[in-house]
What we know:
- This protein is α/β, with parallel strands linked by helices.
- About 30% of the residues lie in helices and about 30% in strands.
- The N terminus is likely disordered.
Amino acid sequence: MSLASTLRPESYEEFAFLYSRTMAEDFCRRAFPLYRELLHTDLQPCCRMLDICCGSGQLAREFTAFGHRVTGFDSSREMIRLARSAAPSASFFVGDARNFHLTHKFSAALSSFNSLAHATQVEDLLKIFACTRQALAPGAAFVFDVSMEEAYRSRWHGTFSLAVEEFTFTVEPSFDSQTRIACNKIRVFNRKAAGYENCFSIYQRCHTENDLREMLQLARFREVESWEAEDQLGMADERGRRFFRCR
Length: 247
């Protein structure tokens, strides 16, 4: 979910719980079948998988249920705590996707739910892709999804609210087409604590497909395929999201 938190640690811990119970579960339900399909030729029984920016561990949970050995990491300690609870048979650690080195080689890697948009500099994409390429066995696939400009222009406006237990959170998304920076302004309320309100923002960059492909090629991924989530893969209400598979 995250590369580097721009939030106070206590703010992120609160949001991690809310994210895990709402948006992360919804995305996993809709995206897991696509990730499994796009990786099916790479997923031999009990193969090693790497989950980059794993968030609260929903996809790791689903892949371990099929017998795969998943290693996941995220920069958020609270996300990792939640991931360990969600997928106890997987392995997790706190780490930076721009700078990681692992002993084992992996048969497949993934990064889901537009996590790579948290790399707000194009140069950071190259670092992430280079580390990922180094972690993969020869010929192994790396699959990820990102929101393209169409998604930001059509969906990143207005507000929406969700409630979990005593907490309610409101999200106000926005997108600046000039800078290509998107922002989620988040307000968290605790219905059991009168007057409690916590406010923070999470930023993303809308990367172009050309930038993604260029950084992948520089990281020595030689084969890059991509599909539009809604039109080509049948993922409802996800126009502008794009899935990539690289080798």
